[in-house]
């Protein structure tokens, strides 16, 4: 089963918590025990699993990523001016596997699933493949 959800990102660079969206797709599938893949089919967006209790974690990650790969880096040749977004997406990756047990995602106490936007705001596709 493949579920395609649209996610609107509110800023040029941001993390959008999609944990509840993924959990809802799992519940709609009716499967109790499964493996799923979550993917974003974009070259300037990514996925990560990280702390979802303190919003400062996401702010710190974005700030540190921008110091590592700033938006305007002298010498970048890519005509669209978003080489930083391609680099960040490549570092994070665009697909993650998850375990479903008793109808719920298996995540740690502080873990959430984030769609990482590095070239927005845009509407992104979130693909959830339930195996």
Descriptive key words:
131 residues; Jelly Rolls; five-stranded antiparallel beta sheet; three-stranded antiparallel beta sheet; 3 helices; 27% helix; 8 strands; alpha+beta
Question: How would you describe this protein?
Answer:
The model has no long low-confidence stretch (mean pLDDT 93). It contains 3 helices and 8 strands, in the order E-E-H-E-E-H-H-E-E-E-E. The protein is elongated. It is 27% helix and 37% strand. 24% of the residues are buried. Strand 5 and strand 6 form a beta hairpin. The strands form 2 sheets. It has a 5-stranded antiparallel beta sheet with strand order 1-8-3-5-6, covered by helices on one side. Strands 2-7-4 form a 3-stranded antiparallel beta sheet, with helices on both faces. The protein has 131 residues and is an alpha+beta fold. It has a single domain, classed as Jelly Rolls (Sandwich).
CATH topology tier name: Jelly Rolls
Please give the CATH architecture: Sandwich
Mean pLDDT: 93
Query: In the CATH hierarchy, what is the class?
Result: Mainly Beta
Helix fraction bin: 25-40%
Instruction: Please give the alpha-carbon distance between the first and last residues.
Output: 7 Å
Taking pLDDT < 50 over at least 5 consecutive residues as the criterion, the unreliable ranges are none
**What number of domains?**
1
How much strand content do the residues show?
35-45%
């Amino acid at each position: 089963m493949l579920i395609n959800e649209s996610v609107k990102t509110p800023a040029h660079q941001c993390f959008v918590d999609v944990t509840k969206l993924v959990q809802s797709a799992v519940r709609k599938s009716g499967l109790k025990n499964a493996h799923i893949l979550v993917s974003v089919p974009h070259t300037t967006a990514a996925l990560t699993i990280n702390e979802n209790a303190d919003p400062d974690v996401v702010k710190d990650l974005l700030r540190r990523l921008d110091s590592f790969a700033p938006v305007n880096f002298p010498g970048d040749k890519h005509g669209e001016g978003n080489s930083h977004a391609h680099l960040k997406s490549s570092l994070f990756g665009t697909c993650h596997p998850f375990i479903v047990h008793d109808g719920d995602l298996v995540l740690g106490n502080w873990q959430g699933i984030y769609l990482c936007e590095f070239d927005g705001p845009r509407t992104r596709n979130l693909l959830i493949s339930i195996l």
